[in-house]
Amino acid sequence: MAEKYLGESVKKLGFGFMRLPRLENGEFDLELINRMVDRFLESGGTYFDTAYVYMGSEEAMRKTLVERHPRDSFTVASKMPMVDTNDPAELPVKFEESLRRLGIDYFDFYLLHALNGELLEKSEKLGAWDFIKAEKEKGRIRHIGFSFHGPAEELEAILSRHPETEFVQLQINYLDWDDPKAPAKDCWATARKYNVPIVIMEPVKGGMLAADESPVTPVLKACAPDKSIASWAIRFAATREGLITALSGMNTMEQLEDNIKTVEAAAPFNEAEQAVLTKAVEVFRSIPRVPCTGCAYCVENCPMEIKIPMLMNVYNDYLVYKTVTNSMFPYMHATREGGKPHDCVKCLSCEEHCPQKIKISDVMGELAKLF
Ligand code: SF4
Ligand code: SF4
Q1: What pTM, to 2 d.p., does this model score?
Q2: Where does the chain have alpha helices with state H?
């Protein structure tokens, strides 16, 4: 069976507008983004990705891309939020708002954002699928799809119920590919089974597979001293089959140049390189973590209502990757409604109920220093 759509002119590097470079005052560095956009287009790249919920991102894309380049020289992907949309009447409002912020009159790619099994039910009840299909009929969307975070069974449920899906956006990287609990390759295989082309997000796990001071640096540099740490992850993503594009959120011109170089030369890993990647994964997995099982016995006894299991995950990511770059969203999610690590009063009530005997109050102290 032929692919439904493989983006004839799309090079396999996409420009993600989720984490844009900022100035010291916190505002976007529009001048640098302009230069990066120009260089990306000059290299043959065309795919730009944003979302309604990425604060200021759609406007930044209008200023740096849409207002400065012919509309037929690039493609734009944006997304309808599903987590915070609770009324069918919000759908057209958010859709028009995205178009207005971007200064365009159609989307090349439009996604329902961050679906899983639960949000599938919600998206159907809200009529989100009918809405995007109707907008496609009107010519205001060229290709409809969704981004997905969840297990392969839930992806299968969505794809079997929605054959109108033209592409899917998945989180795929070399570390999660064979993850013992949730292998990313199962989601990839499910999309392939349904003949739906793939946009890869987070190929460097939000920067975690790109840090120069990564625990796998000695392993990767021993094999290829002149290649960046990030290039292994970008190459892994760019050489998957069935790909439309691998998105990368880039903060500097150096990262962009490195990604362009990597993708232009990307060939599947040979046996020796594959063995190096396997070793790198072993190194990541061997790093000691807090043995939290997520049982949540600790939670109901915390007077400060701290979401302890979620914060344990955040801390474990720090222990492995030695960076908090990609932990800001999970941290904000974990602390949005409950207490923050620095609210911990060291009552130790949680520790009395923890079957793993974790020194939870100490972890809270460490997290308070990190965030
Ligand atoms: S020690 Fe801290 S985290 Fe544990 S229950 Fe007390 S306040 Fe909550
Ligand atoms: S009780 Fe212990 S193991 Fe269970 S979620 Fe809390 S910290 Fe994790």
Answers
A1: 0.83
A2: 30-42, 57-61, 90-102, 117-126, 128-137, 152-161, 184-193, 217-223, 229-238, 253-264, 271-286, 308-321, 328-335, 349-353, 360-370
CATH 3.20.20.100 fits 14-278, yes or no: yes
CA 355 – ligand 2 centroid, Å: 7
Residue with CA nearest ligand 2 atom 7: 292
**Residue to mutate, 289, 293, 299, ligand 2, most ligand atoms under 8 Å from C-beta:** 293
Query: Are 90 and 80 in contact, with CB atoms under 8 Å apart?
Result: no
Give pLDDT tens digits for 59-110: 999 999 999 999 999 999 999 999 889 999 999 999 999 999 999 999 999 9
CB of 344 within 6 A of ligand 1: the answer is yes
Q: What is the CA radius of gyration of the chain?
A: 21
| Ligand 2 interacting residues, C-beta cut-off 6 A | 292-298, 308-309, 312, 353-354, 356, 358, 360
* Nearest partner of 264 among 73, 74, 75, 12, judged by Cα: 12
Residue 337 CA, ligand 2 centroid: distance in Å: 19
**Domain-wise residue ranges, the chain:** 14-278, 299-370
